[in-house]
Amino acid sequence: MQRLLPAPTYLKRLTPRAFAQLAALALSVALLPLSPAQAALAKSAPGSTAPLTLQACIERALDKNFGLAIQRFDAANALESLTIARADYDPALTLTTGRSASQADNADTSLVGTRNDNFSTRLGVSQKIPTGATLSLSQSLNRRGTNNAFALMNPAYTADLSLSVSQPLLRGAGSRVALASIRRAELGTEIASLNTTARILQVVRDTEAAYYSLVYARESLKVRNQSLDLAQRLLAENTTRLGTGVATNLDVLQAEVGVENARRSVLLAEQTVRDAEDRLLNLIGQFEFDEALGEVSLPPTATFSPDYAISYALALKQQPEYRAATESIKQLQIDLSTARRNRLPSLDLNAAGGYNTRDASLNRAYNRLPDGDGYSWQLDLALRFPWGLRAERARYNTALNTLRREETRLRQIEQNLALDVRSAVRSVETNLASVSISRKATELSTRQYELERARFDAGLSTSRRVLEAQDDLESARVAELQAQVNLRTAMAELNRIDGTSLALYNIAQ
After folding, report:
1. What is the 3-state secondary structure (H, E, C) of 253-273?
2. Rounded to the nearest 10 degrees, what angle do helices 180-244 and 463-498 cross at?
3. Which regions span the lipid bilayer (predicted)?
4. 48 and 188: one domain?
5. How would DSSP label each residue in 334-379?
6. How far is C-alpha 451 from the chain's CA centre?
7. What element of type H or E holds 103?
8. pTM over 0.70
9. Measuring CA to CA, which of 143, 212, 249, 261 is 20 to 30 A from 294?
10. Are 277 and 56 in contact (CB under 8 A)?
11. Gap between the Cα atoms of 382 and 276, Å rounded
């Protein structure tokens, strides 16, 4: 609260007529219409709109921020990629059907124009299993009709039921290789989730900074308006004193220049307020720049001493970029394991067996399948050995180099994280001290201004010195406000780095 200034001593020496002129001038100044700056200040005064809290801004940003919405699409795509990888082990149904006909003369017999009419249908199901093998079960039905009078069965139905398996024994064998794509996709969803968390932390930090900037801009506007009011009061007093012969034209001119300088500062402060409002609305809304933002204020800060060891330990545990890098290394380890296995030649075991029947009746052809005399089986090994396996070894070396590169990059991220934490902790410590210093500086400037104003009222100082003291007071107030904002911005950055912003604002994952 601003202290009351002592009554000007020269008022005691004014004549009744001069005192009436001064009262009339003060009344006319009070009845002047509000300046644009004062109107803007009145518009943002408490009660005009509902207060806008930092928590509400963060909740809106998490709901409407464009960058976060884009990142959520990436997370959704990662889940779809996992579904695609798992779908590789879904059963696959196959159905083929067809019809063919042929007619030809047989020169070795007396048959002329032998015609065959064929119809075939095959239904099958195949399934991959985690060992890398593929199982297939199929059943087929063929119908063959002919105009050959010597055919024993016309039409003839052929049915078969078969089961086959193909199992890699060297390259591509084992559940680690077979399930590599699924495990990699699972890690991909975790990385996408961590990237979303990182984006949330950044949005929270940016929203905090934008909110604090708006508080600073509006409070600075209030300070500028107070300075303008003081400058106008000084001009009014000097004008009155000039009429009574107490002041000179130079005093009035200095006061007029002070008013204009203060008005210019107000105009610049108004622009800063509008820019700060737009920056905040850009983070918490979508094309809502015409929305009137309510009263904002700096939230209280808890008294604490930042600790590097604690913040660094939290960062290693919770920092999304660091955790995402560790998950990426796990993916590369899977790639390396697959590449190591694939250095071997291909050796596949293929086995198949089944029953088949042939009959003139469709029902009998099917019914005789389990216990008919027709059967078949097959067992074979297929070996493929590229000469020298140069490509496979090169792929393995590439995977190994990529893994080592990312492990080195992880160490770099860890070191940069340590640097960021050290810098953020120092920033908080520095701004804590700066707040205390700026508060004392404001108290000193206030007392100096009051003293200079009292000397001016006693005729022992000039308008120039009063304006200089007023400028010093304004600068001190703005500097103290800036220190308060800088402290909260530094704390927001530290909370982003160590990941504690999520718990601070109750953000569920």
Report:
1. HHHHHHHHHHHHHHHHHHHHH
2. 170
3. none
4. yes
5. HHHHHHHHTTSPEEEEEEEEEEEEEESSHHHHHHTTTT-S-EEEEE
6. 53
7. strand 92-104
8. yes
9. 261
10. no
11. 71
CB atoms inside a 10 Å sphere around CB 359? 17
Q: Rounded to whole angstroms, how far apart are CA atoms 133 and 349?
A: 9
Both 210 and 322 in one domain: the answer is: yes
Q: In the chain, helix, strand, coil percent, each to 5?
A: 60, 15, 25
DSSP notation for 170-186: STT-SHHHHTHHHHHHH
Distance, in Å, from the CA atom of 107 to the CA atom of 114, rounded to the nearest integer, reads 11
Which tokens hold the place of 378?
Answer: 């097959």
Q: Please check whether residues 417 and 478 belong to one and the same domain.
A: yes
DSSP line for 420-483: HHHHHHHHHHHHHHHHHHHHHHHHHHHHHHHHHHHHHHTTSS-HHHHHHHHHHHHHHHHHHHHH
* Total number of residues shown for the chain: 509
* Greatest Cα-to-Cα distance within the chain, rounded to the nearest angstrom: 151
Range of the domain at 310: 9-19+32-78+184-329+405-504
- Strand (E) positions, 221-345? none
Count of CB atoms situated within 10 Å of the CB of 309: 9
The C-alpha atoms of residue 351 and residue 207 are separated, in whole angstroms, by 64
Closest by alpha carbon to 261, among 461, 456, 441, 468? 468
Written as tens digits, the pLDDT of the chain (509 aa) is 333 333 333 333 344 433 333 333 333 333 333 333 334 333 443 334 689 999 999 999 999 999 999 999 999 999 999 999 999 999 999 999 988 887 776 655 555 567 778 888 899 999 999 988 999 999 888 888 777 666 677 788 888 889 999 999 988 888 888 899 999 999 999 999 999 999 999 999 999 999 999 999 998 898 889 888 888 888 888 888 788 877 788 878 888 888 899 899 999 999 999 999 999 999 998 888 888 898 998 888 766 788 899 999 999 999 999 999 999 999 999 999 999 988 889 999 999 988 888 777 777 777 777 776 788 888 999 998 888 788 889 999 999 999 999 999 999 999 999 999 999 999 999 999 999 999 999 999 999 988 988 888 887 877 778 878 888 888 888 888 899 999 999 999 999 999 999 998 988 86
In the numeric block, which tokens belong to residue 481?
């406000």
